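Cross-check.
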Amino acid sequence: MNVPKELAFSAGEYRRRVHLVHSRLRQRGLDAIVLFGPHNIHYLTGMDSENLFDPQACILTADADPVLVILDFELGRFENSSWLAKPVLYGSFDDPVTAFAGAIDAAGLSRGRIGIEQRAINAQQSEQLARLLPGVLLEDGLGIVEPVRLVKSTEEIALIRRAAAMTDKAVAAGFAAISEGHRDYEVAAAITAALYGGGSHLPCWGPIVASGYRSGLAHSAHNGRVMRTGDVVFLELTGQHQRYTAPLMRSAVIGRASAEQRRIADASAAAVEAILGTARPGVEAREIAKAGLAPIEPIESTVVFHHNFGYPVGLGYPPSWIEMLGFFLRADNPAPLQPGMVFHLPMSLRVAGSFGVCLSHTMLVTETGAETLTRSPAKLIEI
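Predicted model, tokenized:
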């Protein structure tokens, strides 16, 4: 197949990741891990497709390159995006789980302990795999790949920086489209045009635009509402490059902000600044959460807040840019920060049914502190 290779990363970068996962497999006493979700598969193999519905699997033993099992219809995407030499294919009329079991057996894993990415398959598929591999002990493989992904490499950070630049330009375009009498979808259209015009790949989520009372209701989006003076308009979006994201929340008010809007905005902005001022390697996540909560506590009883002071971002596939890696900046997480971690800091403060002011940054943990990869000011803008 004459398809050009367009790898997101160097082959050396992929091998670095594989070697780190090899080490974690040996530490857990596992002979292999079988992955099914697009994030982990992309991370280790480069395989990248918009097909998130036909099953795929990546089999990684403790001492060899990954084996990728995909639908034969996806061969072109493999040739274009993966660093591996060849995949194992199954056909449209084949049973995918049977194909996975055959590839596992062919890899010399008819016996032993194998971790599987349980959250990425359903119970029926998991049970079928166990029946087809009676000599294998299957167990949850959570915690093998995720800690490796949590610390971004230099190559990954470079892609996140590119995404952040796109995000900032799209925010500026969104602000420019906010006006009395215009509809919220016009703002969303301006953001989308700026993202694609600036070179963004297909975003995994958003952009989100919520105006007026809808800005005070979590996870609302544009619905054609006409924007009026006094409305807060909430934007949440990301640029995306090679699947890597840099999300941002911003809020603007049409006209002069009220005293209540300003009070909420000041708390949101101060929380972002407190996190950035506290974050550095070795500091526990719960200490970051404590610092972020301090500016919010005086108004906490008057707002809706989720108490999540940061979640990992990097690889983004629908339906979210949140990386589910088991590490959040919350009061119940005693784990320390490490250089190379990247978080979105969603300081989302909402007065339900009235308005919300939501500010954030995408933050990189450096060797000495924290760096904002998104650069637009985290403050309420008056338009």
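The CA atoms of residues 317 and 329 lie 21 Å apart. The chain has two domains: 11-149, 151-382. Passed to J.P. for a second look.
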